[in-house]
């Protein structure tokens, strides 16, 4: 593997990849969120030729940038199509011309959620705008006849307070004693952002192409994630008395339908690279414990 272009390194996942790869091996771009040693790149208006880098030494380019909010993609379908599909295809074409392998970050949500435990052999059937856009680029890559890596990511979460991901977001509600409404029928295989970054890098280092599912080792429902966090929080002395209401995903006020069980099988990933995927239970425990250690440290002054 030569150098790697990270387009949208300012993203949550990009920020985990940067330190793992090291500045010497990458060119990291941002759009509106400036990052250390990053270069400005606007995928809508600029070409790869506009980058201040000689791309001849690059083996891969990871397309991290996207409009990632499903609600925003639906609300401005024209803009999200430009960002998520048209510019991605234009960049993919530019990479193909230069012999650089595109690494496209797709989503578990390309499936319709009727069965769960999806393998790479299962046929996608996306139900909403963002997922349809991701699948459109997947199909383009599959028809291109050039090497490409399609990484279908499950829900990615982190451990940093305030990062607004799965467990840290639940913890945010607990510390404010806010009620939580969660969908018991929404099932996914969340993966820690460090594992997701490792998986992407290992697949690139192994020269893999084709489609891979990148998810955590087990499937859980949103309500299970909530109860897991509450149990840990209260067992460590946290006081949480607000209501937790389990409901159906369809009861949330969503503009588009969402798939229910989008859990992924990660067998292909495990058989291809040597990766230890951290389970949600273990990560949830660490996140809550870290919260209480930070509180204790702050108290000690
Ligand atoms: N996080 C997940 O759970 C998850 C799951 C499945 C797939 N994915 C995919 O993985 C990739 C990274 O996800 P993430 O959650 O880490 O992303 P994120 O934190 O939401 O960041 C989005 C990135 O896209 C860039 N971006 C957004 N709108 C843009 C525009 N109009 N023009 C140029 N750049 C724009 C942002 O750049 P600036 O901030 O610099 O403007 C930022 O780098 C995305 O392709 C996403 O679809 C993520």
Protein described:
This protein has 301 residues and is an alpha/beta fold. It has a domain at 3-158 and 191-217 and 262-278: Rossmann fold (3-Layer(aba) Sandwich), CATH 3.40.50. The protein is built from nine helices and 13 strands. It has helices at 12-21, 70-75, 77-97, 129-144, 166-175, 193-205, 222-235, 267-272, 280-300; strands at 3-7, 26-30, 39-40, 58-63, 101-107, 149-153, 156-157, 180-183, 187-188, 191-192, 210-214, 220-221, 244-247. The strands form four sheets. The protein has a seven-stranded parallel sheet with strand order 3-2-1-4-5-6-11, sandwiched between helices. The protein has a two-stranded parallel ribbon with strand order 7-10. The protein has a two-stranded parallel sheet with strand order 8-13. Strand 1, helix 1 (12-21) and strand 2 form a beta-alpha-beta unit. The chain starts with a strand and ends with a helix. It binds NADP nicotinamide-adenine-dinucleotide phosphate.
